[in-house]
Automatic annotation (TrEMBL):
One of its GO terms (molecular function) is 3-phosphoshikimate 1-carboxyvinyltransferase activity. Its main location: cytoplasm. 3-phosphoshikimate binds at residues 29-30, 34, 176, 178, 326, 353. Residues 15-434 form the Enolpyruvate transferase domain. This is 3-phosphoshikimate 1-carboxyvinyltransferase. Pathway: Metabolic intermediate biosynthesis; chorismate biosynthesis; chorismate from D-erythrose 4-phosphate and phosphoenolpyruvate: step 6/7. The active site is at 326 (proton acceptor). Keywords: Amino-acid biosynthesis, Aromatic amino acid biosynthesis, Cytoplasm, Transferase. It comes from the Bacteria. Catalyzes the transfer of the enolpyruvyl moiety of phosphoenolpyruvate (PEP) to the 5-hydroxyl of shikimate-3-phosphate (S3P) to produce enolpyruvyl shikimate-3-phosphate and inorganic phosphate. InterPro entries: Enolpyruvate_Tfrase_dom (IPR001986), Enolpyruvate_Tfrase_sf (IPR036968), EPSP_synthase (IPR006264), EPSP_synthase_CS (IPR023193), RNA3'P_cycl/enolpyr_Trfase_a/b (IPR013792).
Length: 442
């Protein structure tokens, strides 16, 4: 049950005994950004089916339109892009605004750095302006890029003077698809080969899509290394975007913890670099079946059927973290409803997401009565203590907002969630869909 309060900024969530029905999962955010970017850089026409219409991909589209790419009106059915060719982006007349989107800013910096003779200024909202950019700025500078910004180039607003780049072999200290993708995109316009080695494998959507657009990519997953050969040309493609497993995760957890649930989640991307959440939930005892597994446009997908099941605590750490990085807030909710202790470690990256997600979940789950200990790189959650409705806050972070809605559905008494509307960043229909599957709209 959901209601908005008089300020219309807070959502009142009342508990329900279960969720039932079918949910078509909206397009993958990572793949949507990449399709818009590669379509803009390619020669000829790109079509995108299933684009995510959240605020983040809208920011990417606005930035690339400002640099000359012809991108049709955004809709889920069909987006058409007339690309302008690699290295051909125009100097924008104004500052490029990445909004709340780290992926937009970090990947775009790699693209802009090699656009010789053109100047770009890049900014974002308050959250993005406080997130570390040195992780991409440092290696781009090693390639020869000229980038300036606050805190020695770590914080936006950033200025980029495009120039010529040379390939490097970069050993990234963080397992980050944004860092890897930024450097691969820079490598398209660099002289020679650009290689990235990561400490653990992160999502590989860029590699898959670059290859499909005609770039020369060499991946060695054993060595956690991927390389791109500079000077490849990109040709427009027809891209089909699968549903986002990170968005499906909210339903997987809600469907598991609410006792009378059965949900069919349609069209979920099942790329193996993203399916850590499935493995962990199954390890915790969740009842999740994959149906109609298939592959579309180089990405595996399927439908997921989740039925309620008792969960038990587990340990989430190590190389698995990058495969479920965005799902940790909602897994913390699952942990609060599981028997026993759940330990999350090696997840310090969560502190530099749209909010400090470790602090946010410790604080807000604590308000609901969960017993959570915060560590520098994780959380320890004593599950099985019934949650009580309370006043909680999204920290203006879309994944915190949706995770807290799921927790509130399983709590006793109603919860008031401030800042719930930021869910639109990655899942514009989340609240209406929740209304439908709780039966509160009949
Ligand atoms: C993303 C990579 C991840 C993820 C983000 C999207 C991407 O970030 O958290 O939501 O599309 O490449 P990091 O690369 O910083 O881990």
């Amino acid at each position: 049950m959901l209601q908005t309060d008089s300020s219309a900024r807070a959502l009142i969530v009342s508990p329900v005994s279960g969720l039932r029905g079918q949910v078509r999962i909206p397009g993958d955010k990572s793949i949507s950004h990449r399709a818009l970017m590669l379509g803009s850089l390619a020669e000829g026409e790109t079509t995108i089916q299933g684009l995510l219409l959240g605020e983040d991909p809208r920011s990417t589209a606005a930035c690339f339109r400002a640099m000359g790419a012809e991108i049709s009106e955004l809709n889920t059915d069909w987006v058409r892009i007339q690309g302008i060719g690699l290295g051909q982006l125009q100097e924008p007349m104004d500052v490029l605004n990445a909004g709340n989107s780290g992926t937009t800013m970090r990947l775009m910096l790699g693209i802009l750095a090699g656009h010789a003779g053109r100047f770009f200024a890049v900014t974002g909202d308050g959250s993005l302006r406080s997130r570390p950019m040195r992780r991409v700025v440092d290696p781009l500078r090693l390639m020869g890029a000229q980038i300036w910004g606050r805190a020695g180039g770590n914080l936006a607003p950033l200025a980029v003077q495009g120039g010529s780049l040379k390939g490097i072999h970069y050993h990234s200290p963080v397992a980050s698809a944004q860092v890897k993708s930024c450097l691969l995109l820079a490598g398209l316009l660099a002289e020679g080969t650009t290689q990235v080695t990561e400490p653990a494998l992160s999502r590989d959507h860029s590699e898959r899509m670059l290859r499909a657009f005609g770039a020369e990519i060499k991946a060695d997953p054993e060595e956690k290394t991927v390389a791109v050969v500079g000077g490849s040309r990109l040709r427009g493609q027809a891209v089909t975007v699968p549903g986002d497993i990170s968005s499906a995760a909210f339903w997987l957890v809600a469907g598991s913890i609410l006792p009378e649930s059965e949900l069919l989640l349609e069209n979920v991307g099942l790329n193996p670099t993203r399916t850590g959440v499935l493995e962990v939930l199954r390890e915790m005892g969740a009842d999740i079946q994959i149906e109609n597994a298939r592959e579309i446009a180089g990405e595996p997908l399927g439908n997921l059927r989740v039925r309620s099941a008792p969960l038990r605590g587990c340990t989430i750490a190590g190389d698995r973290i990058p495969t479920l990085i965005d799902e940790i807030p909602v897994l913390a909710v699952a942990a609060a409803f599981a028997e026993g202790v759940t330990v999350i470690r090696d997840a310090a990256e969560l502190r530099v997401k749209e909010s400090d997600r470790l602090a946010a979940m410790a604080q807000e789950l604590g308000r609901l009565g969960a017993r959570v200990r915060e560590h520098p790189d994780g959380l320890e959650i004593q599950g099985g203590i019934p949650l009580q409705g309370a006043e909680v806050d999204s920290h203006e972070d879309h994944r915190i907002a949706m995770s807290l809605m799921v927790a509130a559905l399983g709590a006793q008494g109603s919860t008031t969630l401030a800042g719930a509307d930021c869910a639109r960043i990655s899942y514009p229909d989340f609240i209406p869909t929740l209304q439908r599957v709780t039966g509160s709209l009949g």
